[in-house]
Automatic annotation (TrEMBL):
The chain crosses the membrane at residues 33-55. It comes from the Bacteria. This is Exopolysaccharide biosynthesis polyprenyl glycosylphosphotransferase family protein. Keywords: Membrane, Transferase, Transmembrane, Transmembrane helix. PANTHER family: COLANIC BIOSYNTHESIS UDP-GLUCOSE LIPID CARRIER TRANSFERASE (PTHR30576), UNDECAPRENYL-PHOSPHATE N-ACETYLGALACTOSAMINYL 1-PHOSPHATE TRANSFERASE-RELATED (PTHR30576:SF0). Belongs to the bacterial sugar transferase family. Its main location: membrane. It is found in: Membrane. It comes from Bacteroides fragilis str. 3783N1-6.
Amino acid sequence: MYFELLGNVPVLCIRQEPLSFAENRFRKRVFDIVFSLLFLCTLFPIIYVIVGLTIKITSPGPIFFKQKRSGEDGREFWCYKFRSMKVNTQSDTLQATLHDPRKTRFGNFLRKSSIDELPQFINVLMGDMSVVGPRPHMLKHTEQYSQLINKYMVRHFVKPGVTGWAQVTGFRGETHELWQMEGRVQRDIWYIEHWTFMLDLYIIYKTVRNALEGEKEAY
């Protein structure tokens, strides 16, 4: 249930999406556990050693960057990434930009290749995230856009994802204008309304393909 504005009148709405059903949630969670475990036990240790050493050599600071994000039902959780920026005090308020001076040289590669997102499979295994779902936003952005975009909080009906439908359909990167975030939210809601297991597999395929080809909006 959620409130939607009809003019200036709040109306209580009831939604029943595919992931409202326990069997679908169970299937998705089992896939998340198996997928994240396989990745974390095979490829991730190698990636961690290579990326971790390079981060330590090229810039002072920790290997991981963690930040509170908004998750399912608006719950806050710590989201993990490989650190791609110099240690700074603006990470919780400023979105990354194309020529962001906070990025390190190696961090620029991490973001372009999306390797910086790989520690989020730890979040998936912990149950805070899913492999596929709406991307988790900074707390400040959730507070801001929930006041500006109708149905914004619908995207919090499911767990946030390492990748999502919006990201593989051209809505990734910095949001200069409100319409860009509105486009993301529309695609997040479409995903929730049309979820199938095959759709998740397709999004994973598109994500890997885009990462290998190089994404212009990945920065």
